[in-house]
Amino acid sequence: MNSVTAILGSPRRESNTEILLNEALRGAKDRGFSVNTFYLNEMSIKGCQACYF
């Protein structure tokens, strides 16, 4: 099965950005794609810690 990964960077839920993203993803879903959406503002993301790995 094909899949699409969407990354939403807006800090506001239900914003215009999310509405537009959902419309684009609807087209992918209609064509049988699996969709995964990541909300960056809700994730715990840390930058490089200079661990040299």
Q: Could you characterize the architecture of this molecule?
A:
The protein starts with a strand and ends in a 14-residue tail after the last strand. The mean pLDDT is 92. Strand 1, helix 1 (16-30) and strand 2 (34-39) form a beta-alpha-beta unit. It has one domain. By secondary structure, it is α+β, with helices and mostly antiparallel strands. It is built from 1 helix and 2 strands, in the order βαβ. A two-stranded parallel sheet has the order 1-2. The radius of gyration is 14 Å and the shape is flat.
Number of distinct helices: 1
Secondary-structure content class: alpha+beta
Query: What series of H and E elements makes up the topology?
Result: EHE
User: Strand-residue fraction?
Assistant: 15-25%
**Ends apart, CA distance between termini:** 34 Å
How much helical structure, as a percent, in the residues? 25-40%
Q: Biggest sheet: strands, sense, closure?
A: 2 strands, parallel
Rg, Cα atoms, Å? 14 Å
Number of domains: 1
- Average pLDDT rating: 92
Walk across the major sheet and give the strand order. Answer: 1-2
User: How many distinct beta strands?
Assistant: 2
> How would the global form be characterised?
flat
Low-pLDDT stretches are: none
